[in-house]
Automatic annotation (TrEMBL):
GO terms for molecular function: 3-hydroxyisobutyryl-CoA hydrolase activity. GO terms for cellular component: mitochondrion. Belongs to the enoyl-CoA hydratase/isomerase family. The gene is LOC107714371. This is 3-hydroxyisobutyryl-CoA hydrolase.
Amino acid sequence: MLLIIVTSALRLRSACRLQRIQGHMMSTKAGSEVLFEKVGNAGVITLNRPKALNALNLTMIKHIYPQLKKWDKDSETDLVIIKGAGEKAFCAGGDIRAVSEAGKAGDSLTQDLFREEYILNNTIGTYQKPYVALIDGITMGGGVGLSVHGRFRVATEKTLFAMPETGIGLFPDVGGGYFLPRLQGKLGLFLALTGFRLKGRDVQRVGVATHFVQSDKIVSLEKDLVDLKTPSNSDVAQLLDSYQEQSSLDAEKPFVLQEQTDAIDRLFSAGSVEEIMENLKKDGSAFALKQTETLAKMSPTSLKLTFRQIQEGARMSLQEVLVMEYRLSQACMVCNAIPCKCNALSFHYPNQI
Ligand SMILES: *[C@@H]1O[C@H](CO)[C@@H](O)[C@H](O)[C@H]1NC(C)=O
Ligand SMILES: *[C@H]1O[C@H](CO)[C@@H](O)[C@H](O)[C@H]1NC(C)=O
C-alpha cells in the first residue's frame, strides 16, 4: 500500500516536472526561432526553425536586424557568423505561405515582411565587420538574401542554391536584381527565369559562394573563426582559403552547366521573354527543349517581371535595386490578393523542396 502511494507520488511529481519543463519550453519558444550568441568576440546567429527548413519570418527578421546593428557598433564584437540549425537547410526562403495568406487578407504583414527584409539585405550588403554565412544546406530566396550580399559565403557539398520565385508568382528579390546580372554571361538571367538549382561546388564556381569547404570541416572552421583575434577581412579570407585548400571533395567533378554555358549565353541573349522562347524552340536541342518545358510551368507575369528586373538591375546599385524590388513586391502582392495567374503555386513554397 505504502509502495503504491510512494510510486503514485513519484509519478505525480515527475508528471509535474514534465509539465514544468514543457511550460518552460513554451515560454522560451517565443524568440527561439533565431538564436544569438556571443562566442569569444564573434556574434553567432543561428536560424532555428529546422522543421520549416529555417524559413525566415517577420519575427526573425525583426530580431536579426537590430542585433546586427548592435554588433556592428560593439567594440567587443569582431566578426559575425550566420548559420542554420539542423542538417538540411541554411534557409529555404521567406515564409511565403504566411505572406501569401496575409496578402489575400489585405494584411500589412506582407508590406512589413518585405520592407524589413529589404532593410536587412542592405545592412548585410554594407556591413563593416567580417560577415561569414555558412550556407551548409538549402539556400533559397530569403536565405540567399541573408548570405549573398555579405562578404563571405561558404558553400559545402550540401548546399543547394536556387531562386525559385518565378514558379510562385514572385520574382527573385532580396537583391536578386543586383547579384544575378553580375554573374558571368547570361547565367544569372537563366537561373532567375528557370529556377535552376545549383549544388555544392558549383555554387562557389558561379560566384554565389566565395568559398567551398567540406561539410565535415564546418564545425572546426567555425571554431577557428571564433578564435581569430580582431580579424580583418583579409585574415578571415586567409583562414577560409586554407580550409578550401583542404577540401578536395568533388574537385574533379565538372561544372554542371559546363557544356551549356555557350548555349545559355546565346539563347538567353534576347530583348524579351518571348524572344528567349523563340530561341529555345528554334534551337531544338535537348537542353533547349527542357528549358522550354520549365519556362512553360512558370508564371508568365513573373517571367516578364524578372526579365525586366534583371535588365534594369544590371545598371543599378544594391540600394537602388532593393528599392525597385520593394516596389515590385508590393505590386505583386496586390496582384496576388486578387486571385490571378501569378498566385498559382504560392502554397507549395517552401514545403515543395
Ligand atoms: C515565426 O516562427 C516562429 C517559430 O515557428 C513563431 O513562433 C512565430 O510566431 C513566427 N512569427 C510570425 C510573424 O509568423
Ligand atoms: C534579400 O536578398 C535575397 C537574395 O538576394 C532575396 O531573395 C530576398 O527576397 C531579399 N529580401 C528583400 C526583401 O529584398
